[in-house]
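Q&A log
Question type: sequence-to-structure
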Amino acid sequence: MAPTRTIRSKFAANGSDKSKRSIKSPTTSSGVRKAKPSKGPKLPPPKQQKSKPSSGPPKKKRRAYTEKELGLPKLNTIAPVGVDRPKGKKKGKTFVEDQESMMTILAIVNANKEGQIESKMMKSRQLEEIREARRKEAEARQAQKNSKLVRTS
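Response status: OK
Response body:
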């Protein structure tokens, strides 16, 4: 048989590559490559960009308005009794400052609730009377059926 040779890379097909490697890459005794100084042109340091000159006088500071000047409402304040709200304003809690007006409001609310309770009681009484009348009618019918059965037998 003929001797065969092994090819380590496609570029090393002809001859040994050890001699070529030692020529191409400069290495030190420790096996580290030295960096080659680049011969390319050095760029000058970047220049600062000039800003555009301002045209006209400098801008004035805007005036800061207070809440009072803008007419903003204060939050969580008590509205005095008898003061009407503007028409576009939302409805909210009504705070009462004096005891007498609070008691009158409570009396009105309680009267409304009692009226609702009374009307419910009246409705329940009427329904109970209707049920009682139906029960009596059913008992009368049952009595008539029983009397008919007694006569026929």
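Response note: Helices lie at 18-24, 67-70, 99-152.
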